[in-house]
Amino acid sequence: MILLNGKSTSEALKNELKEKVDQRRAAGKKIPHLAAVLVGNDGASLTYVGSKVRSCEKIGFQSTLIHLEETISEMELLQQIDQLNQDESLDGYIVQLPLPKHINEEKILLAIDPNKDVDGFHPSNFGRMALEMDAFIPATPFGIIEMLERYQIETSGKHCVVVGRSHIVGRPISILMSQKGTAGNATVTLAHSRTKDLKALTLQADIIVMALGIPEFLKADMVKEGVVVIDVGITRVTDTSHPKGYVIRGDVDFDGVAAKASAITPVPGGVGPMTIAMLLKNTLLACERRD
User: Looking at 14, 91, 96, 281, which residue is catalytic?
Assistant: First the structure.
C-alpha cells in the first residue's frame, strides 16, 4: 500500500517554486506577490491564512494579509476588492471563505479580477478549465491531480467515483479526471447525498475521491481490493481524551480502508498541504503571465 504523502510532496513542490523565484530574482524579474483577505476572526480561517503567509515567506514570495472586521459592510468589502484588482504590485489574491452571513459570497467572488483569481473560483476560470483552456484551477483539485501525477497513479480508463459535488472540490475534480492528461482519461461518476445505493458505486470504483464532509463515512466494506482513495474531508471531531479536545478526521475510515487500498491519502497530511502548495503555484503562474 502506497501512502500518498501530501506533506512531503508539497514540500518538494515548494522547493521547486523557490528555485524559480530565486531565478526570477537573479534575472531582475518581478517577485510573485500574493494577498489574502480575511474577514472576522474564525479560528480555522486564521490558522489557514497564517499557514499561507508562512509558505509565501518560505519560498520567497511577497505576501500581504488584509484582516478586516467581521462587521464590515458588503459595499466596503467590494471597495477593498476593487482596490486589489487595481493594485499592479499584486499578482493574485484570495478572499478566505466562509464570509459573514450578511455578505453575499457569490457577489464578492464575481468581483475578483479573473486574472488575479488564484483560488480558481471565478466562473471565467471554471469555464475555461472545463473547456481545457488555460485557467487557474481550484487549488484542492489541482493538488489532487499533481499528487496522482507525482506518484504515477494510473488513471487512464479507470472508473473514478467522486463523492461530493461542491464547486470547490467535487465538481471540478470530476471534470479534471475525465479530461485528457497524465492524471486524466478516467470514466467518472459524480455521486452525492441523493445518490441511490452509493455502496454499489464505490465497490465498482478503481479510484474514489471523498469530498462529502462526513467523518469516516467510507468504510472497508464499501471498497474493493486495490482501490486508490483520495480523502478530501477534514472535520474536527470532539475527543475529550485529546489535549486539544478534538481530533481531525477525514471522510474515510482510514485503518479499515487502507488495508484494502493500493494507495491512500492520510488525514491530516494528505490533500491539505497540497492545496496551499497549488495556490502558490497558481500565484507564480499569474506572475509569469504578466512578464
Answer: 96
Catalytic residue among 14, 52, 116, 281: 52
As to burial, measured by CB atoms within 10 angstroms (0-12 exposed, 13-18 middle, 19+ buried), residue 54 is exposed
The question of whether 52 is a catalytic residue gets the answer yes
Parse the chain into domains and list their residue ranges. Answer: 28-113, 139-272
CATH superfamily membership of 139-272: NAD(P)-binding Rossmann-like Domain (3.40.50.720)
What is the dihedral angle through the alpha carbons of 163, 262, 177, 212, rounded to the nearest 10 degrees?
20
Active-site residue flag, 134:
no
Residue (of 52, 41, 64) closest to 10 by Cα position: 52
CATH of domain 28-113: 3.40.50.10860
Q: Do domains 28-113 and 139-272 have the same CATH topology?
A: yes
Q: Distance between CA atoms of 62 and 82, rounded to whole angstroms?
A: 20
Predicted TM-score (pTM) of this structure: 0.94
Annotated catalytic residue within 80, 91, 117, 119: 119
Residue 101 designated active-site: no
Q: What is the pLDDT along the chain (291 residues), one digit of tens a residue?
A: 999 999 999 999 999 999 999 999 999 999 999 999 999 988 778 888 888 888 999 999 999 999 999 999 999 999 999 999 999 999 999 999 989 999 999 999 999 999 999 999 999 999 999 999 999 999 999 999 999 999 999 999 999 999 999 999 999 999 999 999 999 999 999 999 899 999 999 999 999 999 999 999 999 999 999 999 999 999 888 888 888 888 889 999 999 999 999 999 999 999 999 999 999 999 999 999 999
